[in-house]
Specification:
Elements lengths: L1 H33 L3 E5 L23 H7 L3 E7 L7 H24 L4 E3 L3 H9 L3 E8 L9 H8 L2 E5 L25 H13 L2 E3 L5 H10 L5 E5 L13 H10 L2 E4 L3 H4 L6 H14 L7 H18 L5 H15 L4 E3 L19 H9 L4 H23 L1
Parallel strand pairs: 1-2, 2-4, 3-4, 4-5, 5-6, 7-8, 8-9
Length: 399
């Protein structure tokens, strides 16, 4: 008799959990239908070197396309014009500037080809209007200020092509500022004098300054110069994961004082300190040896290299989880409040975790937020309200 009672109780508990899960899914669907959801960073344009790549088609590989955005309830995506750091001579700077223009062109063509599904967004108001029309809002950001070279006029050229933020540096120092991960010592001791002019020009135009990837000293220098709120388009919290790419609590407090926002990056190594994985590291080393100097590779070679990296990760990497990502959101909320946090996945650039490996699974983040007691109003801020507030303020200051 006791066994029968215990079994009955267990069945009731299981049924209750299933019902609760279904209720959370239903609530998440309603939220995504009614609020603007924005991801502030993906590297999918690296795949555009293939002339046949179509954002309007659902792909088996990669993380982002328009059909899967619809499936995951993601309304707006910032597509990155990414240029890896290379030499600083005039010839190289002119070459990467032309490469950046080619990527802009590829993004524009992909959006135009799918005009029934998506539209290029330039302003915060555009994003809300495009969602209301039932389409996807496609924003553009630039990852790494390297293609600016030493020519401030290029910033206006990029702005006119749709760029609404620039990540000032990437994994290496450049003429604008120092990177958080350059193995060499600091070259600029933070933001360079030219970098200060870059920030001022971005303020003048109405372009968000992105502090992801830059050194701590550069971060504080930017806050001294910028008259507008800044963003960290894809960064996480150093208090939870000791990585120089992440932002510590003192920096979070300074970011709040600036009125800015940190967009939590769902790349495993920025969410959770990785356990030793010699097999994975050995496979990565093989790929690096195979391809050699990254800056010397063609776009097609870079694409193949990234594809091989993703396949190795899929086979050997121990990924962080959606719960780990929401832990970082919780931490930001606890330190500086609900108004200064969002989501920047870094999809197709290494982003992707258990439970959210593509844009088709974005609602799983919302479900976890609901489990932890976040309200619809809170979730609306996290998913799009906060970043759009910053973009509006940047537009207002420029005007």
């Amino acid at each position: 008799m006791k066994a029968v009672i215990c079994s009955s109780i267990l069945l009731l508990l299981v049924a209750g959990c299933r019902n609760n899960e279904q209720q959370l899914i239903k609530k998440a669907n309603k939220i995504h239908a009614s609020v603007l959801t924005v991801d502030t960073h993906c590297d999918t344009p690296m795949d555009f070197v293939r002339s046949d790549f179509d954002l309007g088609v659902k792909h088996d590989a990669g993380c982002v396309d328009f059909p899967r955005m619809k499936e995951g309830g993601l309304d707006a995506e910032f597509f990155a014009v990414f240029i890896g750091q290379g030499p600083g001579d005039d010839s190289s700077l002119n070459k990467v500037h032309r490469k950046a223009l080619d990527i802009f062109d590829a993004i524009h063509k992909n959006i135009e080809k799918n005009s029934a599904m998506a539209e290029l967004a330039y302003t915060a108001d555009d994003a809300y209007r495009i969602k209301k029309a039932g389409k996807i809002a496609a924003f553009i950001g630039i990852e790494n200020g390297y293609p600016i070279g030493r020519d401030l006029s290029r910033i206006k050229q990029y702005y006119d092509l749709g760029a609404r933020y620039i990540t000032l540096s990437h994994s290496r120092n450049n003429d604008i500022c120092d990177s958080s991960t350059d193995p060499k010592s600091a070259e600029n001791n933070g933001l360079s004098p030219f970098g200060a002019e870059v920030v001022k020009e971005m303020n003048r135009l109405g372009m968000m300054v992105d502090v992801s990837h830059i050194s701590d000293r550069s971060f504080y220098d930017v806050l001294k110069v910028s008259k507008a709120p800044v963003i960290a388009s894809h960064s996480s919290c150093r208090a939870l994961c000791e990585n120089p790419r992440n932002i510590d609590d003192k920096m979070l407090i300074a970011l709040k004082g600036n009125g800015g926002v940190i967009q939590i990056c769902i790349l495993s190594n920025y969410l959770k300190t990785p356990e030793p994985n010699p097999e994975l590291e050995a496979k990565f080393a093989e790929i690096r040896q195979k391809y050699g100097d990254y800056s010397a590779l063609s776009q097609e070679q870079k694409k193949l290299m990234h594809s091989e990296y993703r396949e190795i990760e899929r086979k050997y990497k121990k990924f962080a989880t959606v719960q780990d990502a929401v832990d970082h959101i919780d931490h930001v909320v606890q330190v500086i409040g609900i108004d200064h946090v969002g989501i920047g996945t870094d999809f197709d650039g290494g982003g992707g975790i258990e439970g959210c490996k593509t844009v088709a699974e974005m609602k799983n983040i919302t479900i976890e937020l609901l489990r932890r007691g976040y309200s619809k109003q809170d979730i609306a801020k996290i998913w799009g309200g906060n970043i759009m507030r910053v973009l509006r303020k940047v537009e207002e200051i420029a005007n």
